[in-house]
């Protein structure tokens, strides 16, 4: 399963922080939305490509995932059954990165219900 401490790429963190400034949606909640948007789009992470996690916002997995923890971990295990815990964390971060563009243009919390 996912490690206890997780983080993202710095560029993704910056986008999530900008979203928070515009809407008040915290980065962890925005990351959850972005993750599921990415899964819905059919994105698949390729662990053979180098994916560096460079962010400084390191949070425990319960903070990142909240009540979606079990579903998130099950989805990742189903999509990537052969991946190690570290690779699953990179896959999660890649999904968040992939899903972030679909939500980063939100200017108000009400706009979230329209996407």
Please characterize this protein's 3D structure.
The chain has 115 residues and is mainly alpha-helical. It has a domain at 18-42 and 60-114: DNA sulphur modification protein DndE (Arc Repressor Mutant), CATH 1.10.1220. 52% of the residues lie in helices and 3% in strands. The protein has a two-stranded antiparallel sheet.
Which descriptors would you attach to this protein?
115 residues; mainly alpha; Arc Repressor Mutant; 52% helix; globular
CATH topology of one domain: Arc Repressor Mutant
CATH top-level class of one domain: Mainly Alpha
- What is the mean predicted local confidence, pLDDT? 91
Distance between the termini: 30 Å
Main beta sheet strand tally, sense and closure: 2 strands, antiparallel
Bin the strand percentage: under 5%
| Number of DSSP E strands | 2
- Give the helix tally: 5
The percentage helix is 40-55%
> Assembly state here?
single chain
CATH architecture of one domain: Orthogonal Bundle
- Shape, please? globular
Give, in order, the helices and strands: EHHEHHH
Q: What radius of gyration results from the CA coordinates?
A: 13 Å
CATH superfamily of one domain: DNA sulphur modification protein DndE
Physical arrangement of strands within the biggest beta sheet: 1-2
Overall structural class, as computed from helix and strand content, comes to mainly alpha
Q: List the uncertain runs.
A: none
Q: Briefly, what is this?
A:
By secondary structure, the protein is mainly alpha-helical.
